[in-house]
């Protein structure tokens, strides 16, 4: 019998975690952070002193007490990609299980970087599995890592094969047939898995309400080209900020920097962290083209020496207006480099709509506007599937059951409604789950 416990990420966006029990063995998919709550905690304390118990109590990590009775049965922990809402709780929780972590080389490199930086240790072995490959976990359970596109490299959809049929865990993904970095989604494999019979699909439903197909990363690349090369910037500084884990976006930024004959400089700890993980996993090779400043004293020196800012493309952290990130500090004049009237600041991102981020971004944008900096926002496309992508996935897999994930409330309802449009029945074959609930399939 297959039993699924929706541990985290079903009442909120974040702290993703789902446990799948096959007779007496359990695989745990993702162990992520709820970043809003985690960041508040980290701001007040030294990261290496934060306990798992504290994070559990404030709800910053998945509440694994829901699966305490399954603890000794866990045979694998499988994060699908390197985003912190999927891997960020591993340093705090994974050692409670006597099981390996199975993930792609890039997710592994990011995890090891986090452990090193935060001075944390975990007991689990890390097994690296490339996208589009398979692994036998036990006599009863084997997995396929199906290559997917998303906003960070080496993201996989996982097919968990059991004697009772296959469970597909699709969290997160988009269908991008024209990716800027990495391969296309493996549609052939998805269709094959669908033909062989899928018991249950657990699916990223954050944009189930958005009636569209999510545009390709190629579209974001075109938008970047337009804003970088199609605006008047001669003699002006150009500062650009994006998600540090979005290496495809950084790849586009670097290539346009070269075309514009501007040297690309990367400022900020998290940019340095993801670029070094990407190079370790052989998914990128940026170091030959860019200069990266990770530590505060090196950044200060580099900004001080920036006598001709018009010769550079300056990439910084801080797209959400985070007060400690480089862009907010630039706007507060904390470096010996001043943004001047007419300089460009480009946000290759969208605002994460949480009150903290919205307030921080407003402070940042007001500071930029006060000095007459030109601000270009929303040069971005999402990394998540929209309604019509989700419909395609459902029809390729034709699962017996569907569980919306990575969502809450109206987003989950939107995915349920989509399933109903495709012939599923609410409560019978499409299931609106909350954190901590269980469902079983014979
Ligand atoms: Zn993600």
Task: Give structural notes.
It is globular, with a radius of gyration of 22 Å. The model has no long low-confidence stretch (mean pLDDT 96). The longest helix has 16 residues. With 442 residues, it is α/β, with parallel strands linked by helices. The protein has 14 helices and 19 strands. Helix content is 32%, strand content 22%. Helix 6 links the parallel strand 10 and strand 11. The strands form four sheets. The chain has a six-stranded mixed beta sheet with strand order 7-8-9-10-11-18. It has a six-stranded parallel beta sheet with strand order 14-13-15-12-16-17, sandwiched between helices. A five-stranded mixed beta sheet has the order 4-3-2-1-19, with no helix packed on it. Helix 5 crosses helix 9 and helix 7 packs parallel to helix 8. It folds into two domains: 271 residues, Metallo-beta-lactamase, Chain A (4-Layer Sandwich), CATH 3.60.15; 160 residues, Rossmann fold (3-Layer(aba) Sandwich), CATH 3.40.50. The protein binds zinc ion. The site of zinc ion has 5 residues, from loops.
Keywords:
442 residues; alpha/beta; Metallo-beta-lactamase, Chain A; Rossmann fold; 2 domains; six-stranded mixed sheet; six-stranded parallel sheet; 19 strands; 32% helix; globular; binds zinc ion
Rg from alpha-carbon coordinates: 22 Å
What percentage of the residues does DSSP assign to strands (E)? Answer: 15-25%
CATH class of the largest domain: Alpha Beta
CATH superfamily of the largest domain: Ribonuclease Z/Hydroxyacylglutathione hydrolase-like
Known CATH architecture of the largest domain: 4-Layer Sandwich
Helix content: 25-40%
Q: What is the molecular shape?
A: globular
* Mean pLDDT across all amino acids: 96
- List each distinct ligand once: zinc ion
Multimerization status = single chain
Strand order of the largest sheet: 7-8-9-10-11-18
Instruction: Please count the beta strands (DSSP E, at least 2 residues each).
Output: 19
Low-confidence stretches: none
Q: Specify the biggest β-sheet.
A: 6 strands, mixed
- With helices defined by DSSP (H or I, 4 residues minimum), what is the helix count? 14
């Amino acid at each position: 019998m297959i039993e699924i416990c929706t541990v985290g990420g079903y009442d909120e966006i974040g702290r993703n975690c789902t446990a799948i029990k096959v007779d007496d063995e359990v695989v745990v998919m993702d162990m992520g952070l709820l970043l809003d709550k985690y960041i508040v905690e980290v701001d007040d304390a030294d990261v290496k002193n934060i306990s798992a118990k504290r994070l559990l109590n404030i709800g910053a990590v998945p509440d694994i007490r829901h699966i305490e009775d399954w603890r000794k049965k866990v045979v694998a922990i499988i994060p699908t990609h390197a985003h912190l809402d999927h891997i960020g709780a591993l340093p705090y929780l994974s050692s409670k299980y006597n099981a390996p972590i199975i993930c792609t080389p890039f997710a592994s490199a990011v995890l090891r970087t986090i452990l090193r930086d935060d001075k944390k240790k975990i007991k689990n072995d890390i097994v690296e599995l490339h996208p589009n490959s398979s692994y036998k976990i036990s006599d009863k359970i084997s997995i396929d890592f199906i290559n997917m596109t998303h906003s960070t490299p080496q993201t996989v959809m996982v097919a968990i094969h059991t004697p009772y049929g296959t469970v597909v865990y699709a969290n997160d993904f988009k269908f991008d047939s024209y990716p800027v970095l990495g391969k296309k989604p493996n549609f052939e494999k998805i269709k094959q898995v669908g033909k062989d019979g899928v018991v249950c699909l657990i699916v990223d439903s954050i944009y189930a309400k958005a009636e569209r197909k999510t545009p390709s990363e190629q579209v974001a690349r075109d938008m970047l080209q337009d804003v970088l090369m199609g605006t008047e910037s001669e003699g002006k500084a150009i500062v650009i900020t994006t998600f540090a884990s979005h290496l495809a976006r950084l790849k586009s930024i670097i290539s346009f920097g070269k075309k514009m004959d501007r040297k690309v400089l990367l400022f900020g700890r998290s940019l340095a962290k993801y670029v070094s993980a990407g190079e370790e996993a052989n998914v990128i090779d940026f170091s030959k083209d860019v200069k990266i400043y990770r530590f505060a004293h090196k950044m200060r020196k580099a900004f001080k020496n920036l006598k001709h800012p018009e010769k550079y493309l300056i990439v910084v952290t801080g797209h959400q207006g985070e007060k400690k990130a480089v862009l907010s500090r630039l706007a507060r004049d904390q470096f010996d480099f001043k943004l001047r009237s007419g300089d460009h600041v480009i946000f290759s991102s969208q605002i994460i709509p949480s009150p903290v981020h919205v307030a921080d971004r407003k402070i940042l944008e007001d500071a930029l506007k006060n000095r007459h900096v030109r601000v270009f926002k929303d040069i971005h496309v999402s990394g998540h599937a929209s309604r019509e992508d989700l419909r395609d996935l459902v029809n390729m897999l034709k699962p017996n059951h569907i569980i919306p994930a990575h969502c809450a409330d109206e987003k989950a309802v939107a995915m349920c409604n989509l399933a109903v449009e495709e012939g599923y029945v609410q409560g019978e074959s499409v299931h609106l789950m909350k954190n901590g609930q269980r469902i079983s399939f014979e």
